[in-house]
Amino acid sequence: MSRAFRIFLLAAFLLPLLAVHAQQEQRGITLTGSIQSDMLLPQSDSDIGAQKEDDFCTNTYVDLQLQSQHVDAGARLEYLEHPLPGFEQDFKGWGVPNFWVKGRLGNNELTVGTFYEQFGSGFILRTYEERSLGIDNSLLGARLTLRPLKGVAVKALSGRQRRYWSWGGGLVSGADAEVSLDEWLPGLSDHDTRIGVGASWVNKYEKDEDIYADPTHRYNLPKYVNAWDARIRLNHGDLGLLAEYAHKTQDPSFDNHYSYADGHAAMLSASYSTRGVSMLLQAKRSDNMSWRSRRNGMGTAAFVNHLPAFTLDHTYTLAALYPYATQLAQGEWAYQAELGYNFKRKSVLGGKYGMNVKLNYSYVRAIDDGWLQWGSDTYYQDLNVQLTRRFSRAFKLNLMYMNQRYNKTQVEGEGGMVHSDIVVADGLVQLAPKAKLRCELQYLATKDDQGDWAFALAELSLAPHWMFTLSDAWNCGDSDPAYYADNTHHHYYQCLVTYNHGAHRLQAGYGRTRAGYNCAGGVCRYVPATKGFTLSYNYNF
Fold first, then answer.
1. Mapping DSSP to helix (H, G, I), strand (E, B) and coil, where does residue 220 land?
2. Cα 227 → chain centroid
3. What is the DSSP letter of 272?
4. Residue 362 burial (CB count, 10 A)
5. What is the pLDDT of residues 217-246, one digit of tens each?
6. SS3 of 120, please?
7. 3-class DSSP state for residue 16?
8. H helix runs in 351-424, sequence order
């Protein structure tokens, strides 16, 4: 793409929308949008393995949306000509990959262009964007949403899936229907009961190609792969239940080593919530459910579906040091249980301001041939308890203990089983009406992998504009010599200054980032070690 054409493309993207913005009050049109730009001036650091590949790196996004009574439109400009470390080279480039127009007539909608969609829990279709993971698997095509009857919603769609800067994957088509029975049966609502049933079908068409099992045997690859999903949801008072099952036909691919086995996924989830008490129980079995619009795809690109991990997404640094990635191709049994309880104010344990305790347990194991049989390997286990208590109007404390088993060989390819114990103390002090100081102390103890870690953080907030953050993660323990023969006792320090003004947020910093996996919802992306100056800007209007 020539430089002149790129400048023309940028002007064609921005100028009409800015003209509309100037006239939106007169015509009843609303313009909204956002700007996000993350920048890095990288430096080399041989101690932590950070390499300087470029003088300047940035991932920049500009989203714009026009809204009117019957028609909405939007587009996204992305600039990744010099992408941040960890983003595959396929990200390199810039343009307007996302653009759409949506028309509404009554309760019905038609979208043409790029769009995101999810059927049910996402077992057979979930297209979404997660910039931190480098995921944008939107569809380019059309989607029709109809509500022909009260309590009935029907969707039909077809499009090609985005893969970095092209839509070169297979054609994805599907339909979904959901019925709210309580909208039809008034007696259910009278008894505080809501029942919803849903069913989905998705088809992927991808042309045949020459892929060989060995020099003389070529795979006979199906052009069409079909999947269906059925689910039922029940809510009665404080109780909620969800059951869902999905099936996928033969889909030999790079992920499953070109296996011709069908795919299956089933889950059962129960929740209960009332004043002061909450409970969650979940179980899931999946087998051979990796599904991409390109059968030879790798990394985080071109996934048609998504399977939730059923593990807690931790926000504390050391608790998230070994995050779990859903084993889509191999399959897994996954369980999660959570109990939350609020001790009342002025009780013996609650004290003057009350106290909250939350217990969470996650367990993931290999599957066996039988539907209800476990495999021999444990993939992941997490038992953690969190206690939050306010001791005074000025001081609040959160404590956490976590016991974790992480099968690094299964998730990352090598490393064995990592057993760790993690403790966290997180305190918040109100220093003045507009000044708060938050401090974290964390410790991870293990005899495996890279050994023990310590982490400390201090964060000063001066409302409404300023925030100053200092943190350091230190690999202070002995590493496993079988995998880490070299000294790994390094400090990963960060210094950040954040300024907020209205809808603007600007953050500048300097420091080191360790190599590891960044995960969300069971999907992970490897991030190499980095060092340098960072600058982030966000604006919403």
1. coil
2. 23
3. E
4. 21
5. 899 999 999 999 999 999 999 999 999 999
6. coil
7. helix
8. 408-412
DSSP H or E run through 250: none
Confidence of residue 7 (pLDDT cuts 50, 70, 90): very low
Measured distance CA(100)–CA(140) in Å, rounded: 9
Cis before 464? omega within 30: yes
Which single residue is written with the structure tokens 């899931």?
Answer: 284
Query: Tokens 């064995």 sit at which residue?
Result: 416
409: left (phi over 0), alpha (psi -120 to 50) or beta: alpha
Q: Model confidence at 452, in pLDDT bands (50, 70, 90)? A: very high
The pLDDT tens digits of the residues spanning 8-29 come to 555 555 545 555 554 554 467 8
Pairing state of beta strands 516-520 and 30-42?
unpaired
Give per-residue burial for 40-55: e unless 16+ CB within 10 Å, then b. bbbeebeebebeeeee
Residue count of the chain: 541
The pLDDT, as a whole number, for residue 16 is 53
Quick one: pLDDT band at residue 175, thresholds 50, 70, 90?
Answer: very high
The b/e string for 226-245 (b: 16+ C-beta within 10 A; e otherwise) is bbbbebebbbeeeebbbebb
The residues, ordered by sequence, that sit 6+ positions from 119 with a Cβ below 8 Å of its Cβ are 125, 126, 155, 174, 176, 198, 200, 202, 229
Are 332 and 365 contacting, i.e. CB atoms less than 8 angstroms apart? yes
With a cut of 50, say whether residue 422 has pLDDT above it. Answer: yes
- How many alpha carbons lie under 13 Å from residue 41 in its C-beta half-sphere? 6
For residues 162 and 9, which has the higher predicted lDDT (pLDDT)? 162
- Residue 165 is encoded by which pair of tokens? 């800067």
Give me the pLDDT at residue 213, please: 87
Give the DSSP H or E segment for 83: none
Place of tokens 């059927």: 119
What is the Cα–Cα distance from 175 to 156, expressed in whole angstroms? 4
